[in-house]
Amino acid sequence: xxxxxxxxxxxxxxxxVKKGVQLKFAVVALAVFVVGLLLIGLLFPAxxxxxxxxxxxGAGTDDSSAVSPxxxxxxxxxxxxxxxxxxxTIDSVAVxxxxxxxxxxxALMTAMQESTLQNLDHGDRDSVGLFQQRPFMDWxxxxxxxxxxxxAQSFFEGRGSNSxxxxxxxxxxxxxxxxxxxxxxSAFPKLYAGHEAPMRKLARQAGLNLARAxxxxxxxxxxxxxxxxxxxDTKRKTSPCGVAPPxxxxxxxxxxxTFSDGHQTWALHxxxxxxxxxxxxxxxxxxxxxxxxxxxxxxxTAIVYGWQASGxxxxxxxxxxxxxxxxxxxxxxxxxxxxxYWDTHHRAGHIAVYLGHNKVASxxxxxxxxxxxxxxxxIESKWNADFIGWTPPVFPKAS
Length: 399
What we know:
By secondary structure, the protein is of the alpha+beta class. The protein has helices at about 5-45, 50-55, 80-95, 100-115, 140-145, 150-155, 175-185, 195-205, 275-285, 295-305, 315-320, 380-385, and strands at about 260, 265, 330, 340-345, 350-355, 360-365, 370-375, 385-390. The strands form two sheets. A six-stranded antiparallel beta sheet has the order 3-8-4-5-6-7. Strands 1-2 form a two-stranded antiparallel ribbon.
């Protein structure tokens, strides 16, 4: 065997060795892999897989089983199971109040739009629960609203200053979505109607009788007030801040009245008169103020005059919603009850209620979140703000 043959033999031998080594490594690797699978099976046993553990299609799935909310709180199970449970709770309240199935359907459509029929502990501002009711707007405490039965009863009967479905005249003959909007007063009133078909299907899955008959009266808890004039006028309700809805009588202490700058006179259509608004602002300022007004100057001024909301996002924008003939640019002699405006060099600006004698009721100026009565000039000196002007107390977009 010459040198060339020796070299070739050596190369062949090397190849065989490599193949042998590779085979051994493959066998060892396979054994390790199998042992690994066994160990994973022992350490992490497989759970019981089901459709609910992967996804949930919500309303329209076939699983109609549900677990009732424990202690009136949260339901358990998949999304659809929770929806079924809350639907049953809503319907049970309607049955207890002897309301027809139509009331249940309206409530289901409303809850589906507001919370996807879930008992949410969060929402816009302080909104919570199935119907996204707000503690600040007198629907009850957060804990109360988070009780589905309580929330449903509030939707049907009303709560505090808020009208319920039973308070809406002719609610049984109104289109379903309109009836829901009458209670909720949503910025998106047309969205409720779109939930009718899915909620009818959900009701069938939950075994609810939407064809059930019930009370035929068009109004709920409103009753004639014996201590008010007007012969049969309904008793006026108050909100968490003592806000009353518009009086049917118009002027006087109950609302309306006129406002003048000495040259022009305007009719007002606020729920509170100027005198009543000033009295209310004084009674709820200083030591009687609650810490809930931080960065809410426009909301505060609307509530002073009996509205629940101004309908405008920013104070500086509200000035522009008032008719130009009512704006008094840079005029520092407003009549008591006027709304005064400042440019704070921030997007929102500032607004306050003028009480007379150079005093305004303003939030945040002395204590963040509270209302205090201070000299009007303090807004400029403390916040380096620029005075814009004043308007009569009008709220063109208020609700």
